[in-house]
Amino acid sequence: MDAITSAVIEGAKSIFKLSLSGIKTLSKYEENICELQEEISYLRNKKILIEEEVSIAIMDGKTPKQQVTEWLRKVSRAEDAVRPLLQMLQTPDENINGRSFKMLQQYQQSWRVANKLDHVKELNSTYFETVAPEKCSPIKAMEEMQVPSLVGQQAASDMMKLLEILNSDDNKRIGVWGKGGIGKTTSVKNLINHLCNSSPNSFNIVIWVQVSRELNLSMIQTQIAKRLHLKVEAGDTTHSLANRILRRLKMRVEATRRKILLVLDDVWEKIDLDAIGIPSRDSCCKILLTTRSFDVCRDMSVDVPFQLNLMSEDDAWNLFVQSAGSVLYLDGIQSPARKIVASCRGLPLAIKTLGKSLRDTPQTAIWRNTYLRWRCSSPLFKNIEKEVFRPLAVSYHSLPSKILQQCFLFCSLYPASFSIDVVELIQCWVSDGLIHENQTVEEAFNYGVALIEHLKDSCLLDQDGGQGTVKMHDVFRDLAILLSQNEELFGFHCQSSLPFNQMPKESSRRVSLIGCKIYRLQEYPVYSNLTVLFLQGNPIKIIPDDYFLNLKSLRVLNLSKTEITSLPSSFLCLVELRSLYLRGCFSLTKLPSLEPLCKLLVLDLSSTPIRELPEGLGSLCRLRELNLSYTRLLKKIASGSISGLSSLETLDMSFSAYNWNPKMGSCHQNATFDELLSLDRLSVLKIRLDSVDSLASASSWIKKLKKFDIQISPNDSNYDAQSNEKRLVLRGVDLLQEHLQSLLHNTTSLSLLTCEGMAQRHWLSLSSLMSLTISNCSGIRILISQERSSHAMFPNLQHLVLDHLKNLETIVEGILSRGICLSNLKTIQVFDCPKLKGTISYAMLRHVKKLEEIKVSGCENMCRVIESGGQKKKNLPVLRVIEVKNMVKLRTICDGMWVCPVLQQIEVSHCFQLKKLPISVGDSCSLKEIRGDVKWWNNLIWENHDDKSFFLKHFQAYPREDCLKRQKYK
Predict the structure, then answer these.
(1) What is the C-alpha to C-alpha distance for residues 164 and 157, in angstroms, rounded to an integer?
(2) Which of 380, 411, 413 is nearest to 396 (CA)?
(3) In terms of Cα–Cα distance, which of 299, 298, 306, 303 is closest to 285?
(4) Per-residue pLDDT averaged across 758-766, rounded?
(5) Burial category of 435 from C-beta neighbours within 10 Å (exposed 0-12, middle 13-18, buried 19 and up)
(6) SUPFAM superfamilies attached here (predicted)?
């Protein structure tokens, strides 16, 4: 009974508790709903934070903890369960009837809310100290690199320019290129260190990849994966790893909204960035590559190719001091040390290596010996060969063909720092068989230029300062000589500009002994394989009679600037000869018959005192290029000699004394101009004619010439041969002669000196003219008159020179109709035209929007250079240079103000009435220099002191000695 009673009591208690709990739950219904909303919101935010931590951990190569992964799953399920519950509570069912049923439903909902609330609270109470174990260190955005600091102002300037290029949003791909050993890798590593120290947050991540000479995509991917803490599995393919790299990089970008920078060092060929997993087309990715070849920059479609140049003399010395140390300050060391640095020609690799090799070496004798021998293949300098020449040799071995390799080695036949004439170099390549000879001169030249450009783009050959010349860096020339010793198949032997002390090997094929101070040649050389022999610049007076007997394979012979008086009889054995250079042999007055040289392609007799061309010249039916320029004593060319040169394409007789227009009744044993007309293949002609009579029947023939430089002058007068395509110089000629018309129509560069008929000359027909010079022609008063002008006059004229025209009153008269008249004019120069009061009239100003240079001097009555026509502002958008000199009445360059956004230079001399500059501070952002007399500068009038201060920093006064010379001249 007691047991039953006890059970009933306990049951009643349970029912009471349950009822009480239900009543309590029901009473907190509204409060639980609000609390559930708060808790689930807090849980969502916490989930977002944990997910971000997981993403970052994955990017850092970590694996999230299993508890974290499981918690995220529970949270997602809880969200899915709570979302519809809260939506249902916010939208009550209006169709439910009956109070009892409604209370029952509310009671059930209150239990569900309370249950979910407890579960959400439990999830919110979970805490993770870390979401993933520290398997590896976190990925740093940038890693400082081990690299020597940059030395010299140029290197620092280059780095800052490169930084500016890199920071520009427009530049997605940047190529740093230059010759081996110039410091590309050092510069870029210093750039990365600069970013690391000054802008550590500028990139999400910087990835450095060392590219091998033999392109290996897997190796590149492995380096990138290691930087991203991606584990590379044994079964990974290039494609699968590329996908993983791509996902990892995109996750990093999306997480931080910052760009990635991929640096590819020492690239030799095009790399498919998509194939290795780089989002190269995405704006989030920047590529910076270093290469020795400009071709790689082109193939990789870089936005900015940035070329590193050789070090300046001061920077080179500072780098050497840093490498060699305090030993340089010992007595007797600095002199040979500076010579050593100079011999490195600004190449950092050679400078550093030599400096380190001589560090702490106090013996003066060793320093002097190093200067004399370091670039030779000497056992004393094996470390130099290993550390300098071996890395540079990679560029040579990377050339795509044996022909290009031989072309590179061929350039070493010329002396150190020698300006190699491009035309002669290509002629030699053709004659030696490196370029196929069965093509026209123009085709061979174009192909040769392509080879030269490839060598330049590979940084194995340099552009020289002169036009039409190239140069080989001294260290690369020594590399070529060193390589040629190992490439015996090519047979190069070079001893240029050194005293002759070593005979070439009998197997040699190309031998250069330029400027070796050779006075006598050996009697009977045995070089049966010899194809090229350079002997120019030696004081050789006599060549032994039998010298050429055993050189029957010779194809190129250069005896220029020797002192020979004749060629030996054995010379006629050279039946394989293609090129013969006798330029500047000032003692050579006569040549033997050239008839046996039936394969000759090039003959250069320029600057020789020959009085007649040799016999047998007319039998050279394969001769293509004949240079007779500066043959000032040449009087005789046998009749038929020229017409027999049926393959001739280029004839240069500029500054030659030969008369192509014999007077009536004179002996006709000489070749006449009619023989030139028979040369169907002639395409380049440089010649002087006494009169225009010879041109009577040459109209159609002249049109076939691709280039010409013709001077028509009664007397032999000097003029500068230019590289213009079609140049004509007329001196003392009547311009109205009918025979001139066809020649004038085809001319691109015209010089008129003391000519007649200027006033009646109609310029409308000269549509091909690009350059016009008129000098000492007193008949010209107006160049372009309104009544005889046309909108199409001088449509292609780019350069205009007017010199010593005493009656010239105006260049353009009146208003010209709008059109293409003078629309391409770039430069105008006016000298000593006393009646000219202005250079550019308002009528002319409207047409010359491409004008870049204005130079005016000695026009004593000129008051202003440019007339405004009443306009307050004149726009010359591309004008860069303005020079005015020796004009005492000049008061203004331009009345009013110019708008010249790219003006760089103003020069004023002896124009003391010129009181104001024609430009304002706001239009002078490109100004680099104002040169002039100090007296003139001090008398200038300024709007305010700030303007004067601004322009003063650009002013450069004439040196005192220049002023004294001008005063003396005046």
Answers:
(1) 11
(2) 411
(3) 303
(4) 67
(5) buried
(6) L domain-like (SSF52058), P-loop containing nucleoside triphosphate hydrolases (SSF52540)
Q: Decide if pLDDT at 392 tops 70.
A: yes
pLDDT digits (tens, 9 = 90+) for 883-913: 999 999 999 888 766 778 888 999 999 999 9
Q: Which token pair is 390?
A: 């071996």
How many CB atoms lie under 10 A from the CB of residue 450?
9
Q: Is 235 exposed, middle or buried (0-12, 13-18, 19+ CB in 10 A)?
A: exposed
State the first-to-last Cα distance of the chain, in angstroms, to the nearest integer.
148
Give Dmax over CA atoms of the chain in angstroms: 169
Residue listed under structure tokens 């040289």: 597
What does pLDDT average to over the chain? 83
Cβ-based neighbour number of residue 258 at 10 Å: 15
More confident residue, 175 or 46: 175
Instruction: Name the residue type at position 356.
Output: K
Q: What is the 3-state secondary structure (H, E, C) of 738-792?
A: HHHHHHHHCCCEEEEECCECCCCCCHHHCCCCCEEEEECCCCCCEEECCCCCCCC
Q: Tell which residue, 888, 839, 831, has the closest CA to residue 858.
A: 831
The Cα-based distances of 901 to 543, 581, 944 in angstroms read 64, 51, 21
Q: In the Cβ-directed half-sphere of 779, how many Cα atoms lie within 13 Å?
A: 14
Dihedral sign for Cα 514, 518, 520, 525, please.
negative
Q: How far apart are CA 432 and CA 550, in angstroms?
A: 18
> How many whole angstroms separate alpha carbon 393 and alpha carbon 292?
12
Can you list the positions of beta strands (E) in 130-269? Answer: 173-177, 205-210, 260-267
Average pLDDT over residues 261-267: 91
Kindly state the average pLDDT of the residues 440-452.
94
Q: How far apart are CA 844 and CA 823, in angstroms?
A: 10
Grouping H, G, I as helix, E, B as strand and the rest as coil, residue 648 is coil
- Counting Cα atoms < 13 Å in the Cβ hemisphere of 514 gives 17
Contact 32, 113 (CB under 8 A): yes
Quick check: 213 and 394 in contact, CB under 8 A? yes
Residue with tokens 């107006």: 782
Q: Locate 44 and state its tokens.
A: 């969502």
Helix axes 217-227, 238-256, angle to 10 degrees: 30
Triad 194, 394, 348: Cα angle to 5°: 40
Angstrom distance (rounded) from CA 457 to CA 439: 25
pLDDT top residue among 656 and 29:
656
Helices (H), 92-152: 99-124
Q: Shortest CA distance to 529 belongs to which of 433, 625, 405, 425?
A: 433
| Long-range contacts of 612-617, Cβ-Cβ distance < 8 Å, separation of 24 or more | 612/636, 612/637, 612/638, 613/637, 613/638, 613/641, 614/590, 617/641, 617/644, 617/645
- H-helix or E-strand containing 58? helix 29-59
Is residue 923 within 8 A of residue 950, CB to CB? The reply is no
Q: Is 69 helix (H, G, I), strand (E, B) or coil?
A: helix
pLDDT digits 0-9 by tens, 309-330 = 888 888 888 888 888 888 888 8
10 Å Cβ neighbour count for 816?
21
Mean pLDDT over 833-839 rounds to: 90
- CA-based nearest residue to 325, from 355, 349, 288, 295: 355
- In whole angstroms, how large is the CA radius of gyration of the chain? 42
Distance CA 513, CA 535 (A): 5
CA proximity to 602, closest of 627, 569, 630, 566: 627
The C-alpha torsion from 128 through 130 and 135 to 138, rounded to 10°, is: 160
